[in-house]
Amino acid sequence: MKVTTIDFDNISSEDLSKRLSEFHGHLGPYLVLGAKMGLYAKKTLSSSPFEISAEITMPLKPPLSCTIDGIQFTSGATTGKANLKVSDGLPIKIVFYKGTEGISIIPKEDILEEIRHQVGHEDLEMLAGQIMDKDNNDLFEVQKWTKQ
């Protein structure tokens, strides 16, 4: 059986949003934030879902934990393949790596505050769309990371 995967290099924002919603059950800002982090990691480290690993630290409570689904969906790092580890805690930090080299990603506090302010309102899909359209530099900080 031939398996086809999503071509994340050429997917439109609208199609990505639709597929994220189908996967997660609805479209929300934390889901999109995680998806953008996963896309960034794939472009930076490896397009293979078998070469990239991720370690996530964040409070494991919805809606913030919806970020994890976005990361799994786009990066290909999953709990089932055992290349995704999730820890409950603060500060929020996502480390993606291939071998001993990688990147750490930390969401910017002003974006998290903007999302927190909107959670509970009907316009979450609109906010998700706005986050999809934002530049990564406006959403998160990235630093090189080396396994010790």
Automatic annotation (TrEMBL):
Xref: InterPro entries: FmdEsu_dom, tRNA_methyltr_O
Q: Which residues form the Formylmethanofuran dehydrogenase subunit E domain?
A: 23-108
Highest rank taxon of the organism: Archaea
- List the PANTHER family: DEHYDROGENASE, DEHYDROGENASE-RELATED
Q: Give the protein's recorded name.
A: FmdE, Molybdenum formylmethanofuran dehydrogenase operon
Q: Which organism is it from?
A: Candidatus Methanofastidiosum methylothiophilum
